[in-house]
Specification:
The complex is a heterodimer. Chain A is of the alpha/beta class. Chain A is about 55% helix and about 10% strand. By secondary structure, chain B is of the alpha+beta class. Chain B has helices at about 35-45, 50-60, 65-80, 95-105, 120-125, and strands spanning about 10-15, 20-25, 30-35, 115, 180. The longest helix of chain B has 13 residues, at about 65-80. Chain B is globular. The two termini of chain B are about 25 Å apart. The chains are: A alpha/beta, B alpha+beta. Chains A and B meet through helix 2 and helix 4 of A and strand 1, strand 2, helix 5 and strand 5 of B.
Chain lengths: ~350, ~180
């Protein structure tokens, strides 16, 4: 069994649920576990039988626990300011998903992702600027990221207000949350294993009245991607879908999907330079799953993921050639990335 | 009469089993207090004397407690920036092992504040700054370097339930339950 899959199966469940616990010691390195966002999860579930790794992962969990506290303090401060200025924001991913995990601090936090109604975006931008980083790093989204095919009024109508600390926070409705997590995972080419764990957590917490029609409504390509990611969580991580019909439907995965995602996880966040690859097999995989990544091809097209891999990757040849040329041209002109700001503004992707 | 007062503002406090984890938002340092130090810190409410704190600690430990032990812990807490009162406590002038020997207490009961060690991959990504070499252990006490931005690398230290060593940490950390918010 793949080392990631072995470590991650059922890892989000409470400590007393050992149904998917691996029979042998975890083989994932500490650094790779931290990079993948799994350190706290592995330590909390006692999936680190090596004493040295157990200590390191334990400290990683302690850091995550404190970061969770810091994130929550920042979110509380931000929520109070948003309420004060009557800005209706939806908190996406991050805390909205971490609250579903069985123990605090299991899921590491990053930025606070806020979705803002377009008409309120300038006011939100001014507010975040006035905070000057006092509420931590904030990602502002005009509309809701990955849900641009949904009427925003519908998304806001279905959103939920939940109590949080001394205030309240608005989060996405269950259907939109699952859809967003799946599409976000795919958009980033499945690069972070933790995001698939998020999908598994949400799938296992689906209520009996979950509206699958709404969750899958929209562009067929988006629907297929959502189902594929749910199927990945079921197949790779052992997520238990409480809806048997949907579980069977999601279980139908393109044959290339699992190898592509696993290759990405093993590669890690930073791309190894091509001259460091040590075998023809590694080079071939790097080209097959990296340069001509089928998830990227599907993301950019409206294609069905179940098309043949050859057709998908052939379509990538021309696109990648143009990309490489543009990057080379920019490098020659010394065009670099903008300086990082205290917050980032993302335009929603459109299908 | 000296009435120690703990800092409460700009601190993130989390419990993990019998450990008290504190992140100082001002100094951006993370600390791990063992049960003895945590109990002393929580009793520093500006109304309780050192003698009373020692008596309370004795009740919890079910053993006599010398005020010198409390003074030692207060010195460590002040060095860590976790006290708010203006009284200047003497920096610990002996190691934990010397304290244990002098007072005849178990090593596990001696006050201990650790900096939390983060694996390199996490330290590089974390917003919590881990201060190198700020640790009180059996043989060395070093003053914290000034921190600018994020530091990488690791600190050394020991957990509260092990005998202290420099270099790599030893011993195990047991999980008694999930991390919870600690009353401050």
């Amino acid at each position: 069994m793949d080392v990631f899959v072995e470590a991650m199966r059922g890892v989000w469940r409470p400590p007393d649920d050992n149904s998917d616990a691996p029979a042998q010691p975890n083989r994932l390195s500490v650094d790779r576990a931290c990079e993948a966002g799994l350190a706290g999860l592995l330590w909390r579930r006692e999936r680190c039988f090596d004493a040295a790794n157990r200590e390191a992962l334990g400290d990683a969990y302690r850091i995550q626990l404190l970061e969770a506290g810091l994130h929550e303090a920042n979110l509380e401060h931000l929520s109070i300011e948003l309420h004060r200025q009557n800005i209706d924001a939806i908190v996406c991913k991050g805390w909205a998903v971490a609250r579903l995990y069985s123990c605090p601090g299991m899921r590491p936090y990053g930025d606070i992702d806020l979705s803002i109604r377009p008409e309120q975006f300038p006011a939100a931008e001014n507010l975040v600027q006035s905070l000057a980083g006092r509420a931590g790093p904030i990602d502002l989204h005009r509309g809701v990221a990955d849900l641009a095919d949904r009427p925003s009024d519908e998304v806001w109508r279905r959103s939920r207000v939940v109590p949080f600390a001394n205030t309240s926070v608005r989060i996405l409705g269950g259907e939109d949350q699952l859809r967003q997590l799946c599409l976000h995972f795919w958009r980033h080419l499945g690069c972070r294993p933790l995001w698939l764990v998020d999908v598994a957590v949400v799938v296992e917490s689906l209520p009996g009245d979950f509206d699958w029609d709404y969750a899958l409504r929209g562009a067929p390509s988006a629907r297929d991607r959502v189902l594929c990611v749910i199927g990945l969580a079921q197949r790779l991580l052992g997520a238990r879908n409480p809806f048997p019909d949907m579980a069977r439907r999601a279980d139908r995965l393109p044959h290339w999907l699992i190898p592509t995602v696993l290759w990405r996880w093993h590669r890690g966040m930073a791309a190894a330079p091509i001259w460091s690859l040590r075998s023809f097999r590694e080079l071939a995989d790097s080209i097959r799953f990296g340069v001509f990544n089928p998830l990227r091809a599907i993301q950019r097209s409206t294609w069905n993921p179940h098309r043949s891999l050859a057709a998908i990757q052939t379509s990538q040849v021309g696109i990648r050639a143009v990309e490489v040329a543009v990057r080379a041209w920019r490098a020659l002109r010394k065009l670099g990335p903008q300086n990082a700001r205290a917050y980032d503004i993302h335009e929603p992707r459109r299908f | 009469m000296n009435l120690p007062l703990a800092r409460r503002d700009n601190l993130i406090v989390k419990m993990l089993g019998n450990e008290t984890l504190i992140y100082d938002r001002v100094s951006k340092r993370a600390h791990n207090l063992n049960p003895t130090t945590a109990l002393i810190w929580r009793n520093c409410d500006g109304r309780t004397s050192v003698a009373t704190i020692a008596a309370d600690l004795a009740r919890h430990m079910d053993a006599p407690v010398n005020e010198e032990l409390v003074e030692y812990a207060l010195g460590e807490l002040q060095s860590a920036g976790l006290l708010a009162d203006s009284h200047v406590y003497q920096e610990p002038h002996m190691t934990r092992r010397q304290l244990v020997t002098k007072l005849g207490i178990a090593m596990v009961a001696a006050p201990l504040i650790l900096s939390i060690k983060a694996p390199k991959a996490l330290a590089q990504a974390s917003r919590i700054v881990i201060v190198n070499n700020y640790v009180t252990n059996n043989t060395t006490t070093t003053t914290p370097p000034s921190t600018t931005g994020t530091t990488t690398g690791t600190t050394t230290g020991t957990t509260g339930t092990t005998t202290g060593t420099t270099g790599t940490t030893t011993g195990t950390t047991t999980m008694d339950g999930g991390g919870t918010d600690a009353p401050v």
